[in-house]
Amino acid sequence: QETRNAEVRFMPLDLASLRSVRAFASAFLRQEPHLHLLINNAGVSAGGTTEDGFSLSFQVNHLGHFLLTQLLLQRLRDSAPSRVIIVASSAHCAGRLRLDALGRPPPGPFSTFQDYCDSKLANVLHARELARRLQGTQVTCYAVHPGFVNTELFRHAPLWLKPLLVPLAWLFFRDAAEGARTSLHCATHEDIERFSGRYFADCGLQEPWPPARDDRLARALWEASERLVGLGGSPWAAPSD
Fold first, then answer.
1. Are 157 and 45 a contacting pair, CB within 8 Å?
2. Rounded to an integer, what distance in angstroms lies between the CA atom of residue 199 and that of residue 144?
3. Rg of the chain on CA atoms, in Å
4. Which residues on neighbouring strands pair with residue 174, listed in sequence order?
5. Are 182 and 58 in contact (CB under 8 A)?
6. Would you name the residues annotated as active-site residues?
């Protein structure tokens, strides 16, 4: 109604529920014959556990997007050329993936923040491994750091921390439109296909931190994520080294 564009359609999707992700994908595939662009943009930084038994931040920020992308991947391939944008964060630099405890809250007093950082590292690695598996398909993908954006991302922050975050947000953070620029750049800019799997910030290429460039970790994360979301293995195997 706000856009006055009859082509805009709302479809409910709760990334904190793998059941909801599957229902959304099934409904979308029934209703929409084409898919040229998928932007995995949702993100939370909050404690708690989902109905699937995973930490809330890690499921919403990574596992839910991972399952959604996998369920829609054939439609993206059939609609090629197409693109996947995964909204990550510079917070990936503090990520530490524990593959034997993936999806469980990290230990320590800053568990919620660490879980968020871990999920953002997973985002960058997801894009990297997805690109490897989709070589030659005309489906490309990009991880994006939108900058520090004044949204409600930290609305679940502890009460003692909010008086510090709110002034910082208003003074230094970007508004939502500015925060969308790099995602839109990767979604629409011509001639970036050769950078599939790479990390972008401020509408340009940027090297992520070393763990986010670890191909073995990316592959291990992929395989662990498949198990956690109940996929029996990807039909698109990674190219041989």
1. yes
2. 6
3. 17
4. 149
5. no
6. 116
SS (H, E, C) 172-198: HCECHHHHCHHHHHHHHCCCCHHHCCC
Q: Give dist(CA 102, CA 55) in Å, integer.
A: 9
Neighbouring CB atoms inside 10 A of 68's CB total 23
What is the phi/psi pair of residue 139, to 5°?
-105, 120
Per-residue pLDDT tens digits of the chain, which is 241 residues long: 788 898 888 999 999 999 999 999 999 999 999 999 999 998 888 889 999 999 999 999 999 999 999 999 999 999 999 999 999 998 898 999 999 999 999 998 889 889 999 999 999 999 999 999 999 999 999 999 985 544 555 555 554 444 454 544 444 455 566 767 899 999 999 999 999 999 999 999 999 999 999 999 999 999 999 999 999 765 544 454 4
Question: What whole-number distance in Å separates Cα of residue 6 and Cα of residue 11?
Answer: 14
CA dist 38 and 24 (Å) reads 14
Domains by residue range for the chain, with CATH: 35-229 (3.40.50.720)
Give the ranges where the chain is alpha helix by DSSP (H).
18-31, 56-58, 64-78, 111-133, 162-172, 176-179, 181-188, 215-229
